[in-house]
Design goal:
Layout (H helix, E strand, L loop, with lengths): L10 E6 L14 E10 L9 E10 L6 H19 L5 H29 L7 H7 L1 E6 L2 E2 L5 E11 L6 E10 L8 H4 L5 H15 L5 H7 L9 E4 L3 E6 L12 E6 L10
Parallel strand pairs: 1-5, 3-4
Antiparallel strand pairs: 1-6, 2-3, 4-6, 6-7, 8-9, 9-10
């Protein structure tokens, strides 16, 4: 599972959901946690840098059938632990996360900002607002996925006053019966991940209008390995490589979808 990184990690979270339990295929209701807050680096100073936080995060409801409630609570707690450093009631946990995030922003930057501002001429302080501002956004949505699996797409973006925001996408998949995470190795036969990677590489090459990995290398791509991010959709698997994973920043992120029917020979029956 992915762990939230220290200091000013921006999450934009969309959530993919298929079933409640077992073989039951239906849309599931969800609860949304929404937070929008901002804090000036210097209290009472309307022109000082600030940190803005927005959260719109769906969680599974825990007020239904006992079995469903247990699985939903387990999945919610795993998400809260992995991405919000907490467990428990989602509204409270997310609210505390936002509060801690803003507190950490001020603690980490206040003294440096005041020190730098004291050495600048009044007309030269505008760059400090850019350098010391931060932004955090978390958004979510729920849509159907593969039978028996609930998948979460986690798009993270963080801005800490640098040249540009940093965006990262994570996928997390859970078994709807047990609430356990579903790994790629759970769906593919032992010893077939190299074959899977070859097919992903071919799909990326096709998307780029070239024939093979050698021509991808000529485009600037690195050697493509087994993806860390994958989402088990209804009819296909989405594989995702974040910026810098398989190439320079200029190439951006890489996403391909491969239908289950084209992977059946290497998947667990």
């Amino acid at each position: 599972m992915k762990k939230i990184t220290p200091s000013f990690l921006l999450l934009t979270i969309s959530v993919l959901l298929l079933t409640t339990l077992g073989c039951s295929t239906k849309e599931v209701k969800y609860d949304v946690v929404e937070e929008r807050r901002e804090s000036r680096l210097v209290d009472g100073d309307p022109v000082s840098p600030q940190c803005e936080v927005f959260v719109h995060m769906p969680f599974l409801p825990t007020d239904g059938d006992e079995d469903v409630r247990k699985v939903a609570t387990k999945i919610n707690n795993q998400l809260l632990k992995e991405f919000f450093n907490s467990v428990g009631e989602p509204h409270e946990a997310v609210s505390q996360f936002v509060e801690n995030y803003l507190k950490e922003y001020k603690e980490d930057r206040y003294e440096y900002y005041v020190s730098e501002r004291s050495t600048c001429e009044a007309e030269d302080t505008s760059f400090l607002n850019h350098a010391y501002s931060a932004y955090l956004s978390i958004e979510g949505a729920i849509t159907p996925g593969r039978e028996g699996i609930v998948g979460f797409t986690v798009n993270q973006e963080v801005y800490n006053g640098g040249a540009h925001p940093v965006s990262t996408t994570y996928y997390v998949n859970f078994n709807t019966v047990t609430g356990d995470e579903v790994k790629i190795s759970d769906l593919f036969l032992t010893g077939t991940l190299d074959q899977l990677t070859d097919r992903i590489t071919k799909a990326i090459a096709q998307n780029n209008g070239v024939r093979d990995k050698d021509e991808l290398l000529n485009l600037g791509y690195d050697e493509i390995g087994t993806p860390q991010e994958y989402l088990f959709g209804r009819d296909s698997i989405t594989f995702f490589y974040n910026v810098y994973e398989i190439g320079p920043y200029a190439l951006g992120s890489t996403e391909v979808k491969i239908a289950y029917k084209d992977l059946e020979d290497i998947m667990v029956k």
